Amino acid sequence: MRLKDKVAIVTGAASGMGKAIAELYAKEGAKVVVSDFNYEGAKAVAKAIEEKGGAAIANRTNVAESADLEQLFAETKGAFGKLDILVNNAGIMDGMEPVGDITDEKWDRVFAVNTTGVMRAMRIATNIFLEQGHGVIVNNISAGGLRGARAGAAYTASKHAVTGLTKNTAYMYAQSNIRCNGIAPGGVETNISASMTNISEFGAGRQMTGNGTMPRVGKPAEIAQLALFLGSDESSFVNGQVIAADAGWIAY
Ligand SMILES: NC(=O)c1ccc[n+]([C@@H]2O[C@H](COP(=O)([O-])OP(=O)(O)OC[C@H]3O[C@@H](n4cnc5c(N)ncnc54)[C@H](O)[C@@H]3O)[C@@H](O)[C@H]2O)c1
């Protein structure tokens, strides 16, 4: 088993890629904290993992709330005594708005979840990792964190910020036995479109230039395989990278 005796937190794990990552991590021997603000969904994922012989607990966290994040890490340490892997996966879309149309409210909401929540979780995790002497962070970013024609201004900027945060963190703690990498999925079959509101016709049309070159839509399980590699010791020499899993989309 590739994650035997590891303890992992996966945020946004009630659905889509987070769910697939939580399930695969558990199958590979990790004790998993299945975290989501959809608590019923998180409980269902944790229960299914346990029914298959894995170890998991469900946790209710809105990653946009500092206090929720504090209790997430406290609950993890309380249940499993340590933390080896943090997977920052929870995220929401914008409405494809270009900067001329984005409202402060939408910008702030997208950044609170996609960027500030990730930074705060990394801040808490890093301090745990420094104390323990080891730890791994895997950020589920996006092709939109590397390219400009994949979403609206807020989502694109929020994910580019996490690309920078990933590289900076990797560099800062490179000599502290802490690794930090990112995944840039292409389009993946999940429920994320449910988070889109007030879609901009202009912006959605413009980003089709980028989206039109997508070779195919991926499955959450295909992204989970990369999250497994990056979370495991097999990637011990990989640090500060944002790796695309997109059937070649970024190559275009
Ligand atoms: N689906 C895609 O095509 C795609 C492509 C690239 C990157 N991504 C990124 O992948 C990640 C996972 O998304 P997905 O596509 O699996 O979507 P999804 O909507 O299926 O799953 C996201 C999960 O995050 C949870 N969530 C949302 N806001 C939250 C919050 N504030 N606090 C806690 N949990 C919250 C949701 O309840 C949901 O369970 C996101 O960061 C997304 O930006 C998605």
Automatic annotation (TrEMBL):
MF annotations from Gene Ontology: oxidoreductase activity
Keywords: Oxidoreductase
GO biological-process terms attached to the record: bile acid metabolic process
UniProt KW Signal keyword: no
Family listed: Belongs to the short-chain dehydrogenases/reductases (SDR) family.
Official protein name in the record: 3-ketoacyl-ACP reductase
